[in-house]
């Protein structure tokens, strides 16, 4: 019986990772539903234009090449519904992953390095269409491409009920590590925002984004100089967050606040 259960589990795992189509290295557009994957690194972007598309890069790297006739977006979810992008590594793009007017998009376990905005969601302002999920992604700003001048590492705009869970942002030098702009009912849980800009930046900025829920998030700077933790958390729920060296933590703005830690350590 145990052997049967084990085999069933392996079969189920195999089907979950199955790939219908290996994307050709020169193919830029996905316009049919299905499961797609990469078998090699590439320097061409990918645009998703259909419903029910799953793209699994399987750890392969998409590298931006100047003058290659693209718009600087590594993976662009342009049209359709219920798309999944997972296990991609984006290097050097102005936008690593951009979600445009897509309902129920999932961006899972991707890595963005040396670029501008790591992940951006630009919704449709239709609450029934939106529930983007950004989970387990990593965005690093330590390479040559960090000079793109991005204002945010993760930006969610005009999208209702987004979920941001267990994402990591490190070394960001722009204005807001996470920007929520007209993103009502956002849920931020377990995100780590590390080594942020010490002067005038913000860990999480909320603009016209009511009822944000922030639980178990961490923000840390090397020194407490002039950076802020939360901006615009007027009616937010803030529970068990830890902010180190954010001179203005911003927890006092939260309408519900419990067990948050704000500490300055310049020793």
Q: What is the element layout, followed by pairings?
A:
Layout: H1 2-16, E1 21-22, E2 29-30, E3 34-37, E4 46-48, E5 53-56, E6 61-63, E7 73-77, E8 84-86, E9 89-91, E10 95-100, E11 106-108, E12 111-113, E13 117-122, E14 133-135, E15 138-140, E16 152-157, E17 163-165, E18 168-170, E19 176-181, E20 187-189, E21 192-194, E22 202-207, E23 213-215, E24 218-220, E25 228-231, E26 237-239, E27 242-244, E28 256-258, E29 261-263
Parallel strand pairs: 1-3, 2-4, 3-5, 4-7, 5-8, 6-9, 7-10, 8-11, 9-12, 10-13, 11-14, 12-15, 13-16, 14-17, 15-18, 16-19, 17-20, 18-21, 19-22, 20-23, 21-24, 22-25, 23-26, 24-27, 26-28, 27-29
Describe this structure in words.
The protein contains one helix and 29 strands. It has 267 residues and is mainly β. The strands form three sheets. Strands 1-3-5-8-11-14-17-20-23-26-28 form an eleven-stranded parallel β-sheet, with no helix packed on it. A nine-stranded parallel β-sheet has the order 2-4-7-10-13-16-19-22-25, with no helix packed on it. The radius of gyration is 19 Å and the shape is globular. About 3% of the residues have low confidence.
């Amino acid at each position: 019986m145990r052997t049967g259960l084990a085999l069933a589990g392996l079969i189920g795992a195999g089907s979950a990772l199955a790939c219908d189509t290996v994307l050709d290295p020169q193919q830029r557009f996905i316009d049919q539903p299905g499961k797609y994957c990469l078998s090699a690194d590439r320097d061409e972007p990918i645009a998703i234009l259909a419903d029910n598309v799953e793209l699994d890069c399987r750890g392969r790297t998409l590298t931006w090449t100047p003058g290659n006739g693209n718009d600087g977006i590594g993976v662009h979810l342009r049209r359709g519904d219920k798309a999944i992008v997972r296990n991609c590594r984006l290097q050097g793009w102005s936008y690593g992953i951009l979600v445009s007017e897509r309902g129920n998009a999932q961006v899972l376990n991707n890595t963005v390095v040396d670029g501008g905005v790591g992940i951006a969601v630009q919704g449709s302002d239709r609450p029934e269409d939106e529930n983007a999920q950004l989970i387990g992604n990593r965005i690093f700003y330590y390479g040559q491409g960090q000079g793109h001048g991005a204002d945010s590492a993760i930006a969610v705009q005009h999208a209702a009920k987004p979920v941001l869970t267990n994402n990591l942002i490190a070394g960001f030098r722009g204005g807001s590590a996470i920007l929520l702009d007209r993103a009502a009912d956002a849920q931020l849980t377990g995100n780590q925002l590390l080594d942020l800009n010490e002067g005038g930046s913000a860990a999480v900025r909320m603009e016209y984004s009511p009822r944000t829920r922030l639980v178990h998030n961490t923000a840390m700077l090397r020194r407490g100089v002039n950076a802020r933790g939360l901006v615009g958390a007027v009616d937010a729920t803030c529970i068990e967050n830890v902010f180190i060296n954010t001179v203005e933590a911003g927890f006092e703005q939260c309408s519900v606040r419990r067990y948050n830690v704000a500490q300055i350590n310049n020793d």
